[in-house]
Amino acid sequence: MTAPLTPPPPPHDHSAQGSWQPPAAGPAAPGSQHAEYAGHGWYGQDGPGMKTELREAAVIAVAVALGGVLLGVLWWWLAPHVPLVGDVVEKSWVVYLKDTEGEQAIGVDGTFTLLGLGFGAVSALVVFLLRRRGGVPLVVGLALGGLLGSLLAWRVGVWLGPAQDVVAHAQAVGRGVTFDAPLKLGAKGALLAWPLAALVLHLGLMALFGPRDPEPDFAAGPYQESPAANGR
Questions:
Q1: Contacts with 27 (C-beta within 8 Å, 6 or more apart), sequence order
Q2: How many domains does the chain have?
Q3: Tens digits of per-residue pLDDT, 6-49?
Q4: 3-class DSSP assignment, residue 218
Q5: Angstrom distance (rounded) from CA 116 to CA 110
Q6: Percent helix, strand, coil in the chain (nearest 5)?
Q7: Could you report the per-residue pLDDT of 90-123, keeping only the tens digit for each?
Q8: Would you list the DSSP string of 39-68?
Q9: The domain containing residue 69 runs over which residues?
Q10: Is residue 164 situated within a structural domain?
Q11: Does pTM surpass 0.85?
């Protein structure tokens, strides 16, 4: 006599129990979102890399700084001349301004400032046209190049200008003869005209005409429930 066979257990009806089912693979799956933003970041595509940006910023800084040679030449050529005159007082040479109320010295500083603003605008425009991507290294390189260019222009203009030894110059030209004073930058704040103009204009160009980052799509939720679970 044999024992009765045990009937097999009934199949589990997952839909009837309303259990959660993993979402089907699709564009809204969480994995696809992580894969999409893993390579592009939340703010659009990644840049060329920090090393590349630093190298480009160094090249831009050097190229912009070399423009200071041209600025120095223009400053020496366009700046007004400050007239001096020498005289002998008690067997000693003295040098004084021929026109004590003249504004030539202010014009020297003003010429350097205006040229610096112009060079800053040109350098910012050229950098923006050559490389329309922003970045902190690029902006720092542009500003640093403008500052170095201003310092170089200052020294080039002084070197091209009249001799620095005004007493020896007065003795060379003779007593009572008018000669030009050395080129001197009285307001050292004019050295910041170039980097500030380049920085402000470049940031403005990037804000108006720079590339826009795509906005991330947050429409899809982190997970989806099965229709049967929602109908419980």
A1: 220
A2: 1
A3: 555 555 554 444 445 555 544 544 444 444 434 443 333 445 57
A4: coil
A5: 10
A6: 55, 5, 40
A7: 878 888 888 877 788 899 999 999 999 999 999 9
A8: HH-TTSS--S-HHHHHHHHHHHHHHHHHTH
A9: 59-80+105-159+185-210
A10: no
A11: no
